[in-house]
Amino acid sequence: MKLLFICLFSLFLVACTSQTEQADPYAAQFNFTYTTSVYNLTLEYNNITDPFAQGDALLIEARIHNTDPRTAIPYYKKALQTASPEEKALLYESIASIENKREYYWTSYFIWKQLGNDFHAQTDWYLLYGLDPPYKADIYELPSPYFATSKNATEITIGETSFTLNKSDILISQVDRVTRDWLSSQLQNPETNNLLTVFSEKYDVENIGWHEGGRITQYKKETNLTHIPATGTLVRKINGTWYAANENGTFMFDVPIDKVEYPTTRFFNENLGMIIDTHGVNMLVEQAINDNATVVMACCDHIGKIKAALYLNERGIKVICNTDKYLPLALGQTNTTLGSAPFYPRGNTLLFGNQSINISLNEKIIVLNATEKYGLSYYATPTIYFTTLQKRTLLPLDMYYINIDNYNQMQKVVNKAHEENASVIAARVYNEDDYSVLSAWLQENESNRLILFHSEAYPYGYLLLRNYPKQITFDDIMPKFK
Questions:
Q1: Are 269 and 28 in contact (CB under 8 A)?
Q2: What is the residue extent of each domain of the chain?
Q3: Out of 3-12, 254-263, 340-349, 395-404, least confident range
Q4: What pLDDT digit, counting tens, does each position of 82-109 carry?
Q5: N or C: which end of the chain has fewer CB within 10 A?
Q6: According to DSSP H, which parts of 84-128 are helical?
Q7: If 0-12 CB within 10 Å is exposed, 13-18 middle and 19+ buried, where does residue 270 land?
């Protein structure tokens, strides 16, 4: 009885001192229109029936158009009626942060405690009293070791690395481009079983599907593995950079600002937020380890995501990141993270990778590069890979870099291969033009070989990898030298 009285009295004090003058007070520092302006997209949320998603749609619209975000609150409260315990905790935290009423952290605190998540519970306890939660950080530099390669090496094999998945695997994924895609106005409950396969591109090719949602749909169809989309990741700003935490609540993994300022992110104070639409391996470490994941699938287009992938590999968890711009930073360090690797059914399992080519070290390699423009810069992944490989092996690779400054310029790469009489190209396939140009080049001569990067997530890259399995490999970060 005494404990109950203390709890109720504490709640009364919090309610009396809550600040309600300004709704969503910590969101004002962010530019929520950055991503939509880059892609020139207009958001139109129609036919949304899930109350969690309805609330998020109203929150997005309010933040983008600078209107009252509290229009979302009735929908979050309605969602509480059917929510799982974890979803309830996320919803109470959402209401607390947007309405600027700290008393709601009381309920989310108790839910997290019951779920055994002391990290989130402790965070809510401090927020309940208007305090900035204390935190631990372990921020480190990504190692860049040299390969132990012989000076007498004459050949490199790329693409032998592999692993398998089966129905006993537990796959943790990001939410963005899996169960939701706010950029293409597709919102559902973040933890729904209904996976999306077409996103802001708004078209499909041979029902292959796009991005992580398209691939996970195929994995589940072939193996019926367990899939859990991970949401509600806490992020903290430390010395101007945002970080996500490991399984113990220690902030370690850099998070790029464009993902923090997704308009569905909840902000608890100036330096602390919660990401609903998780995007990247760096946001999934806590959930992956605590939910006993055997494999994680998410984006690897940032250095913090590579740190997280290596961290998970060290703990026995495989990583798949088809969008792999910065995966080359892990060259030589792990054989349980795969980038743009194809997969094939093998009985009751899926075999990933194991599609190799050999390259003589005296062969010329034509390497695609691209200007640093949002979206187009993913075409620079082959250059990141081969410059890193040369630096870490000190081998005299004979490379020619071809820069593009717009889409549909793959012919420049093939023209350079013809000019140099080269039989090896390193490229990225995104659209039909990329596919057609490279497919025609592969058909010219069976000795023509291609290394693909950042391609498996897209239908035309997916097709090319499978249509020419003896001539195409993927961005294997554990190549072998002979």
A1: no
A2: 2-134, 155-160+355-481, 162-232+243-353
A3: 3-12
A4: 999 999 999 999 999 999 999 999 999 9
A5: N
A6: 85-99, 104-114, 118-128
A7: exposed
456-468 burial, b for 16+ CB within 10 Å, e for fewer?
Answer: bbbbbbbbbbeeb
- Give the dihedral sign, CA 403/406/407/410: negative
Rounded CA separation 261/283 (Å):
14
For 212, the enclosing helix (H) or strand (E) is helix 211-223
Q: Kindly write down the DSSP assignment for every residue of 403-431, as one continuous string.
A: EESSSS-HHHHHHHHHHHT--EEEEE--S
Say if residues 122 and 43 touch (Cβ distance below 8 Å): no
pLDDT digits (tens, 9 = 90+) for 431-473: 999 999 999 999 999 999 999 999 999 999 999 999 999 999 9
For residue 344, give both structure tokens.
């094939």
CATH 3.40.50.2300 fits 155-160+355-481, yes or no: yes
First to last CA, the chain: 75
User: What is the identity of the amino acid at 426?
Assistant: A
Which tokens hold the place of 153?
Answer: 């090496």
In this structure, what token pair is assigned to residue 104? 């709601």
